[in-house]
Amino acid sequence: MLLRTFIARRLASYYAQSADDVVSSSPSSSPIEFRRLLDEWQWKRLLDRMYREQKGQWFTPVELFKPYYSNAVANFIATNCRKGKTKQPTSAKATEETAGVDDFDDDDEEDYGDGDCPIEIVELGGGRGTNALCVLDHLRQHEPALYERVQYYLLDSSPTLHKLQQERINASDHAAKVSFLLKDLTKVAEGQSELLPLSDDDPFGDIVNPLTFVIALEVFDNLPHDKVKAIGGGGGPTDQSQEQRQQCTVRRRTDPPTATTTVPNKSTPPNNTTAVVWDEHFESLSDPLLSRMLKLAPSNYIQRNSATWVPTVALSLLHQLPKLRPRVQLLIADFDWFPDPHHFSLGRESQLRQPPQRRSLLAHEEPLIKSMDDGEDDGLMYECYLTAPALSDILFPTNFPLLSQFIKKSWRKLKRDVIVQKQADFLLRYGSDEVKKTKSWLTGYSPLIDDYSNTSVLTATFPSHDTDVNPSTRIESHWAKVLKRFSCSK
To answer: Is 188 in contact with 317 (CB distance < 8 Å)?
Structure first.
C-alpha cells in the first residue's frame, strides 16, 4: 500500500482511543498560577510533574495556557475582520488548477467588516473543544457584534474526540453557534469527501461566500505524509531535468517469531504466533495526488539522490481551500523542528527504545514517534515508524518556509499576506495582554512565549492586516535565548 495510507491507518487507530488517552485536559485540580512562577526551572519541574500525573498523551498550548492562548487566536480573528475593501473572487466555481483564484470581477469590491456578512471559523482537529469554547467566550465578551455573525465548525477525524467536543460544547451556551463534522482529512485530500458543506444543511443556506477563518493548531504534524526519492538529474541538488521520482510503498511479510522486528508491547502477538513485519519499497511515481502536489510544490521540496517526507495531505487541503471558500484566511500553528529521539527527554535517563534494526529509509523531515503503550508514565520514543508499537503517535515537523512558498504559488491570484513567524512573536502581536497575565511577578519569565520555542505560526490574511508584524520587538530573540541558555549550561 502507499506509505501515506499506511500512516493514515496507524494514526486512525491511535486517535480511535479514548479521548483522555490522546489529548490531556488542562489541570482540573487548580489553575496554574503563572504569575507566581519564579523561572524556567520551576515551570519545567511543574510540567514534568503534570505529565507524570496526567492520563493522556500530550498537553497542548491551548490546554496548558487556557484561556490566554485561545484569546490571542480570537484577537487574530477579530483584527482581520475589521473593515477593509479588496477585490476578491465572488464565485465558488473554479478549475482544479487555479482552485478558485481566476474568478475575479474587476468592478466588484466587498466589505469584510460591516453589514451582515457571515463569518465562519473552521477549526481542523478541535482537540477537546477547549479552543472553540475559549475563542467564542472571548469574542462574545469583547466583540459582541462579530460574535453574532459567527458560525463555528469543528472538524475532527477522531470519533472519541468528536464525541467529547459535542458533549462539552452542547452543554455550553455556545451550542447553537457550533457545528460538528467527523471528517477523515486524508479522504478529503484525496477527493473522496468534501471538507465543508455547501448544502441546505449549511447554517448559511445558499450563501456560498462567507468570510472564513481556517485554524489548524498542532494538526499538520499529524497528517499523513508520503516519502519520495529523486534519482538522477544533471545539475544541482534541486535540478529536475531527466530526474526519476519514486514513491514509497509499504508491504507486509511474515517472519518467524525469533526474527520479529516489532517492539514488544501489549499489542505484540504471543510467542507461538508469527509476527507481522513491514518493509518499505520504492517504485516509479504514479499516485495522482502526490504527482499533482509535487507539480505545485516548490522544487526544493525534493532533493536529488535522497529521500524526503512530503506533506501530501496538508498540501492538498491547502490547495482546496480557495475553491471551497474564496474569502479564506488562514492560521496554522505547529512544530517546526523536533530533536533527535536520542536527545528527547522529559526528565527520564533514557526514553529512546532501540529497535533491533531500522526498517525505514532515513529521509529529510523525519517524524518523531512516541508510544504510550509500554507501561511507562510518559511514553517512549522510537526512531522508526515500522518498528514502533501499533498505537503510536507519529509527529512530523512542519517546514514553514516551504509551506509558505506552496501557498503563495497555489493561491497565486488571491491577495493574501502570507507570513511565517515564531509562535512567541504571534502571541505578542495578538495577545500582549494575555502574555502579561502569564509573566512571573519576579523575573518576567512567561512559559507562554518562552516555552515551545520549536513552534511557528503561518498566517495568510487580507493585505495590510499583518504587514506591521515586527518580530524584532521581542526583548530577546529566540536564538539569543538559545545561545544564552547553552552558555549557562556549560
So the answer is: yes
- Report residue 216: phi and psi, to 5°: -135, 105
Amino acid identity at 177:
K
* 3-state class (DSSP) for residue 431: coil
Give the span between the Cα atoms of 2 and 467, in whole angstroms. Answer: 41
Q: Nearest CA to 190 among 162, 160, 223, 219?
A: 223
pTM: 0.83
Q: What is the pLDDT of residues 151-179, one digit of tens each?
A: 999 999 999 999 999 999 999 999 999 99
C-alpha 395 chain-centroid distance:
9
Q: How is residue 326 written as a grid cell?
A: 474564496
Number of neighbours of residue 141 by Cβ within 10 angstroms: 11
| 40-63 tens-digit pLDDT | 999 999 988 887 777 556 789 999
What is the rounded CA–CA span in Å between residue 439 and residue 204?
41
Q: d(Cα 335, Cα 456) in Å, to the nearest integer?
A: 6
Q: Whole-angstrom Cα distance, residue 103 to residue 82? A: 24
| Whole-number Å distance between alpha carbons of 395 and 92 | 33
Strand order in the sheet with 368-371: 380-382, 368-371, 392-395
- Alpha carbons 40 and 57: distance in angstroms, whole number: 22
Q: Report CA torsion sign: 463, 464, 466, 471.
A: positive
CB 190 within 8 A of CB 289: yes
Distance in angstroms (rounded) separating the CA atoms of residues 225 and 308 = 10
DSSP 8-state class, residue 364:
B
272 C-beta neighbours (distance < 10 Å), count: 6
* CA pair distance 474, 330, nearest whole angstrom: 24
The one-letter amino acid at 153: Y
Count of Cβ atoms closer than 10 Å to residue 372 Cβ: 22
